Amino acid sequence: MSDVEARLRDTFAAEAAAAPDADVVALAAVARGRVRRERRRRAAVGAAALGTLVVVAAVLVPRSWSTGATVVPAVRAPSGPSTGTAPEQPALRFRGAVVPVPAAYLDPAAVRCGTPVADAAYVAREDQATRACLETPEHPERITTVVLEDATTADGALGAVPWPRMMPDGRTRVWTRLPEADVVLTVVSPDPALAERLLGGLRFEPAPDGCPAEAIRTADADPLAEGGLLRGRVTAALVCSYTRGRLDTTRVLSANESATLTTRLRAAPPGLGTPEPFCATVRLRPGYEAHWLLVLDTPEGVTPRTTLHVAAGPCVASGVTAPDGATARLTSDLVSLLTTLAPGPSSFSGVVGGT
Amino acid sequence: MELEEYVAARGPALLRLAHVLCGDAHRAQDLVQTALVDAFRHWRRVQRADHPDAYVRRILVNAHLAAVRKRSSGEVPVGEVPEPDGAGPDGADPADGVAGRDGFRAALDGLPPRARTVLVLRYWSDLDDVAIADALGVSRVTVRATASRALATLRERAATPATTTTTGEAP
């Protein structure tokens, strides 16, 4: 080997040794979130185009040609603007508080290491682990942020001394409390009118039927229970997510989402536990657990509704439990889907899914 | 295999390769993330590939070269502002060794991006010319010729006194 080749090897080895010790799994989660967002956007554009076609067809084609058949989900969506399976308006959601925001604000890449690096809308959670790195946006004074957080946590910051409306960097900061959801919304923007408009968009959407305000647990696991978690056809599904026992996010699933969820539930092996790859990705602080409740309408049985309890924690017994004690292990596929559908148990955000 | 499982197993190696390719910690993370976005878009294809590693490496390398092309007309961010040329002591100083290493690194950084990438894949990733050609989407002959020219350039610059290098001689 020549001297130059040896020096090349040494130089590259030195550079490799200086490589950052970054959380690559978090990078993967961000990548996954970004691609899913792109796909959803594409699907929404396709759906909009299809919708336009349908409307045009409905106007042009005689009434007798229309099929008229409609499938109504048995799980009722909350009353309000975003019901059923209509394309959802991009919005930041937390405990029933809904703030419509531009879709780009919700890009997980807009917040790095807990710091917004672009216009961003996110839920600030004290239990959320963030990557240990320093991020300094080039022009923080140009960034608009929309933040929802627990009112108790926010009280510490709001405190007795009111925040100044004008920040030192010239941005306007406005905030309000939504008592129904017990959350505080804070908007910071270089454009005062935009800040007021975003703040004014805040609304409360009550949880759909089937999502209790507090997390409930189903029966204890029964090692003798047989037959799997799901019996019969699932026609509609609702996902309720809980953080520290409190309802966080709810989502009425579309037919496709329900089908995907039930497929993954059926594929999950019986038993409780924490599969190693999943355990390794959890970034929960000790003492925190995540819960989801899956409310499934299965009209082909004696009981038309099945409620499955999903628990997850840092390497503790995790899994899905049915009322009769039947269990299923959590697969990373299932957790990934749940965090996408109802990203309440935020401790997984940035690791498995994304908020 | 899911993306997260793959990344948990191979992510650190990807990050090291990205860092050796671009020489900057932040850009390396961005590069890996860009590559993962692309990999996830075509994840089924990655899973079906005979060598998923080679597939993802190819994505990473192409993302790096694309980023370099995009940046070539703009400013180049650096971690630290370099000392002005000639600010150091003369040739008899014990710091010569360091200066020599820096000179070598500067010569390396002065290579065309594709040539530097070929050297990284050959001397860091220990790939043969066929694998490098596959990663870059070029022929084996091109790889050999590029590597040969790059090594000759480095030899020439390594043999040139540091003072000559700092006078702004054309790379």
- Rg of chain B, alpha carbons: 18 Å
Biggest sheet of chain A, in brief? 6 strands, antiparallel
Percent range for β-strand residues of chain A = 15-25%
Order of helices and strands of chain A: HHEEEEEEHEEHEEEHHEEEEH
Number of strands of chain B: 0
Global geometry of chain A: globular
Structure description:
Chain A is α+β, with helices and mostly antiparallel strands. Helices cover 28% and strands 21% of the residues of chain A. Chain A is built from 7 helices and 15 strands. Chain A has helices spanning 3-17, 24-60, 151-158, 192-200, 255-267, 276-281, 332-341; strands at residues 91-94, 97-100, 111-112, 115-116, 120-124, 145-150, 172-178, 183-189, 203-204, 236-243, 246-252, 290-297, 305-312, 319-321, 327-328. In chain A, helix 5 (255-267) packs antiparallel against helix 7 (332-341). The longest helix of chain A is centred in the first third of the chain and has 37 residues, at 24-60. The model of chain A is unreliable at 60-86, 278-287 and 346-355 (pLDDT under 50). Residues 73-99 and 162-171 of chain B have low confidence and may be disordered. Chain B is 70% helix and 0% strand. The chains are: A alpha+beta (355), B mainly alpha (171). The interface between A and B is large, with 35 and 40 residues.
Structure in a nutshell:
The complex is a heterodimer of chains A (about 350) and B (about 170). Chain A is of the alpha+beta class and about 350 residues long.
Defining traits:
heterodimer; A: 355 residues; alpha+beta; four-stranded mixed beta sheet; 7 helices; disordered C terminus; B: 171 residues; mainly alpha; 9 helices
